[in-house]
């Protein structure tokens, strides 16, 4: 009984790490960015953990005017850099792109940290 309990705890601790290896972590990053299209940039700043720290100005994000009523907000997460194309009239995200090497942009689908 005790041995089964210890084995099941060990399996649970290892399973998230194992499952993450089955998923394309770069593709998961892209799925998250794709899901942001159509959202209001202000809502995204307040609701997403990826952007919450940017809301208070640290770290800083860059903006670039693209013309024709669009602005790009540029972000970095370590060596991963991406930009969100936002309609300046209503603040809606209309697209995104990588800035630099896309191989640095990876997210793990399952949490691997301490409980």
UniProtKB/TrEMBL annotation:
Residues spanning the signal sequence: 1-22
Domain of life: Bacteria
Keywords: Signal
Record's protein name: Lipoprotein
Biological source species: Methylophaga sulfidovorans
Taxonomic classification: Bacteria, Pseudomonadati, Pseudomonadota, Gammaproteobacteria, Thiotrichales
């Amino acid at each position: 009984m005790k041995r089964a309990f210890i084995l099941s705890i060990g399996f649970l601790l290892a399973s998230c790490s194992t499952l993450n290896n089955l998923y394309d972590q770069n593709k998961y990053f892209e799925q998250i960015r794709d899901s942001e299209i159509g959202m209001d940039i202000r809502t995204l700043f307040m609701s997403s953990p990826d952007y919450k720290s940017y809301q208070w100005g640290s770290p800083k994000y860059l903006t670039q005017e693209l013309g024709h009523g669009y602005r790009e907000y540029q972000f970095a997460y370590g060596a991963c850099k991406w930009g969100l194309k936002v309609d300046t009239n209503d603040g809606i995200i209309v697209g995104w792109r990588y800035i630099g090497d896309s191989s640095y942009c990876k997210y793990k689908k399952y949490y691997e940290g301490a409980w």
